[in-house]
Amino acid sequence: MKRREFLKYLGVSTPYQHLMLNRLLAAQGGLLLAQLLPLPQLAWGAEGAVPVTELKHWSTPDYTRVSIGLEHEVKFESHKIPGRLYLDIHGAKVTPGIKDLNIGDGLLKSVRIAQYRATTARVVLDLDSIRDYKIFTFSDPFRIIVDVKGERRQEISAAKGEVLESGKPETAAKPEKPKAEPEKVKAAEKPKQPSQFKPGKIRRIVVDPGHGGHDPGAMSPSGTREKDIVLQIGLKLAQKIREELGIDVVMTRSTDVFIELQERTAIANKMGADLFISIHANASLNRGANGIETYYLNLAKTEKVAQLAAKENGTSLEKVSVLQAVLFDLMANYKLNDSAHLADEVQKALYKKALTGYPSVKNLGVKQGPFYVLVGATMPSILVETAFVSNEKDEQKLKDPQYQDLTADGILSGIRGYIASLK
């Protein structure tokens, strides 16, 4: 594919977007994208090395994600040799207590970590059978993510849908069966069932209420927290999907707990989800900004979108620019058109439904942006900004159970429309 055709495929069209891409690609110079990351000009000694704080993984028969957490950004390089994929992390030291991972999932045998040199930590992935892999980074805190893919050899059943991670099983061990979430038993008690609706190929949807725990998300001047609002909408949506569409639902969180951004899409990939819906509430320094908008993953077309991505990513505008370069490398295999289609169906239906109770609601349309929470998803995935918590009128709507219910109905209707269009 020629450069011009690829840029068109990515939706790169505005001067801002071309400028950012040209700067980043010029800086790349044929090196690893990871080497774009800024590194303080220090004379690294063992005393000044950045600690490796975490080594985790999420695994399925055809997908494994490995996350390497560090206190600060560092440079690294990767190498693949027969039977192994390894990363040398420069200016880093292995923290006592960081242990190797025994995986044995058919893709990876294990992940080993050691101090290769005084200021170089080496992470070795012992390969079993893989088809492809991608390496990218998240910021604040800095994490190196390795996604390894293979061929699906078995179906993931709903009955065995436990989400297990090596590290914090108490926060995300079973997000699909929380106490606060409507269980399938409750759904069976109610006679309300989908009327002749056929979900087709869509068998499982992951609903992702943004933020949570120590991360409140956006906050209004009066103290309304994004994490609380979107959790309520997410719980309503999950119940409606089960009862009205008859489709299995997994929630990344159903209580007020913190789930890391790289874990959210890992859950969706692990569970073999067919759609990923991340729910958020918007915010702006302009208190007059209001309305509904839906995003799918792509390069930011304007600085305003980049600023929103920085807010949702919990990082800086500079880090978003780095992510743009990473996305340029990842986009060729991303379900761009399917995600754009899903975003369009949800945005239209959500706006139409919201109008029935709130005639003044504003339609901000479908947009694209570099959101961490969507990176690495192997299925059509979108991020819905349900209203502006920073706007006084929007805030009151978000706190209103009626608006929350209408929002869940609108997203549900959009999902229904998307599924119907696949025939």
UniProtKB/TrEMBL annotation:
Keywords: Hydrolase. One of its GO terms (cellular component) is outer membrane-bounded periplasmic space. Residues 265-416 form the MurNAc-LAA domain. It comes from the Bacteria. Residues 162-192 have a biased composition (Basic and acidic residues). GO terms for biological process: peptidoglycan catabolic process. Pfam families: Amidase_3 (PF01520), AMIN (PF11741). One of its GO terms (molecular function) is N-acetylmuramoyl-L-alanine amidase activity. CDD domains: MurNAc-LAA. Residues 160-197 are annotated as: Disordered. Its EC number is 3.5.1.28. The keyword Manganese does not apply. Transmembrane segments: none annotated. InterPro entries: AMIN_dom, MurNAc-LAA_cat, N-acetylmuramoyl_amidase_3. It catalyses: Hydrolyzes the link between N-acetylmuramoyl residues and L-amino acid residues in certain cell-wall glycopeptides. PANTHER family: N-ACETYLMURAMOYL-L-ALANINE AMIDASE (PTHR30404), N-ACETYLMURAMOYL-L-ALANINE AMIDASE AMIC (PTHR30404:SF0). This is N-acetylmuramoyl-L-alanine amidase.
